[in-house]
Structures are given as structure tokens and as C-alpha cells.
Amino acid sequence: MKNTSKKKNKEHKNKKKKKSNNNNNNNNNMKHEKIYKLLRFEELPEYMKENEFILDHYRAEWPIKQAVGSIFSWHNETVNVWTHLLGFFLFLALTLVHLRDVPQVANLLDHFSWYIPSNAVENSSYNQGKLFYVTSSLVQQNPMHTTTTTATTTKTQRWPFFIFLTGSMFCLLSSSACHLFSCHSRRLNLFLIRFDYAGIAVMIVTSFFPPIYYIFQCDTHWQLLYLSSISLLGLLTVANLFSPHLSTPKFRSYRASLFAAMAFSGIIPAIHAAVVNWNEPKRNITLAYELAMALFYVVGTLFYVSRVPERWKPGLFDVVGQSHQIFHVFVIAGALAHYAAALVFLEYRDAVGCFHDQR
Prior knowledge:
Elements: H1 2-32, H2 64-69, H3 78-98, H4 103-110, H5 118-129, H6 136-140, H7 143-146, H8 159-181, H9 186-207, H10 209-215, H11 220-241, H12 252-264, H13 267-276, H14 283-306, H15 323-352
Helix pairs in contact: 3-8, 3-15, 8-9, 8-10, 8-15, 9-11, 9-12, 10-11, 10-15, 11-12, 12-14, 14-15
């Protein structure tokens, strides 16, 4: 009886001890599971105080896991993340559509014709290409469809067009990554901001490739001069922007002026192209698209620099409607306008080829 009683007492003590240990473990887990709350501007570490007109809904010093999860929650970077992330997927879709024009990819797709009808892919590519034409007469006058004799039976090179699409995707994705993960730490914040600036520079440089390559395809010395110049200017801009001192908020206007200088360096080749192609029927439509692109970028930059509308009513636009979000929308609009112009350049060069007895 005594042994049985001792055994029961021992089991009872063990159960109490086990229960106590479990409670301690749960308490420890509760202590380690930190709740990450959104902060106000004055609560931020100094390196995150960039826009004093955005007063609330900040994330600061968040682990990567929590930062990833915040993509589906509301804070003052949610719209910034999603505007350019959706833009990235849009340009990825456009890239996949136009890859059909690459012979190697077309041959690969032909092997899957039992699964994806080739006429469906062709119709998709054709309809996507016509998406940005403003009148049906332009399609009817397109030499690609009406001209039976061309200077060459070989399609022109596609790589400048895909360089532009790749540069746009890189810019949009780096921007989304910056806005999503810059809340992690000072070190990652500084790196991602520089990475974001590099993405803008890459997008500007790669935007020059389709118009300059296709317009001056028959004048390779001008083609080489202009493409080399903008590429060099882009490298110098990126090197400049990777300076820690120039990445600080007070140099916002300086950074914007660098990007503007890169963009407006295209005025010289644009005037040159307009002069040598003055009698071309596609001149007006391409100029309209490129002017629309320039207008979108300039207006977006003005919002970025001026911090309007949050400057007028601090706190009202913390989550939706702030200047940086508007800037993102104008960037995508400008890229789409340039995409439309690049389609015209590409189809025109496919149709007429390169007459070496021209200027």
C-alpha cells in the first residue's frame, strides 16, 4: 500500500512538473512572438524619415518574414508595392506574347501545338500588337500588311525591343522589392534604395534602344554613337546614385534632375530622327506616342519632387493617394506609351527593311 501511495504521489508530482514546464514554454514563446505594429512618423528610426507629410502607418525594423506577409495588409507602402508589381506582370505578359516572334521560341511552341493551338498564339500576338493603335486606318496603311515587296525577306532583329521590355520589368520589380523590404533594417534599406535608383536608370537607358536601333538601322554609325552615349550616361548616373551621401532624402531633387537629364538627352537623336524621316507616314504617330511618354514621365516626376497632394493635407493621404503612388502610375503609363511606339518602329522596319542607298 505504501509503495502504491508513493508511486501515485510521484506520478502526480511529475504531471505537475510537466504542466509547469509547458506553461513556462508557452510563456517564453509568447515573449518571443513580438507583435509588429505600424508606427507614426516621429517613432521611426532616423534613416526612415523621408517624407514628413506621411504621418502614420509605417513599418520599421520588421523581419523579412513579416515584411513579405505585409504585402497583403494595409500600410503606407501597400499601393506602392502593388502598382509596380502589377506593372511588372503586365510587361512580363507582353514579353511572353512577343516571344512568339522569335524563331527559336516559335519552333519550341510548335512542339506543343497539340496543347496550345498555334493560331490562338498568333491571334493573341496580333491583337496585342494592335492594342495601342488609335484608328483602324493606321492598321490598313501598315506596310507590314499591304506591301508585298520589301527590301528584305528577313525580319529585323528583336533584341532591342526585348532589351526595353527587360529593362522595364527590372525597374518595376526592383521598385516593388524596395517598397516591400526597405522596412527591414538600415543596411537593407540603403541597398534597396540604391537598387531602386539603378532600376530607374536601367529603364531609361533601355528605352532608347528600340527607337534608335530601328530608326538608324541603315545608318549604323549614328546608331552606335547614340546607343553608346546613353549607355555611358546611364552607367555614370548609377555610379553617382550609389554614393551613400547622395541617397539621403535631402538629395531627392538632385536625383530627379539626374533622371531628367538622362531622359532629355534623347532630344538630340529625336530631332535627328524626325528630320531624316520627315516624309515617313509613321512619323506623326510615333512622335505622338513619344511625346505622351515624355509628358507622363515629367508629370510623374513633378508629383515625386513636390510631394503633392500630401503636402497640402498631411495625414490624409498616408495609405492611398500620396505623391509616390501617383508617380508610379505615371511611370507605367509612360512605359506603355513607349511600348506602343516601339511596336510601330518594329513593324515598320520589318516591312521596309534597310535600303542602303538611303541617307
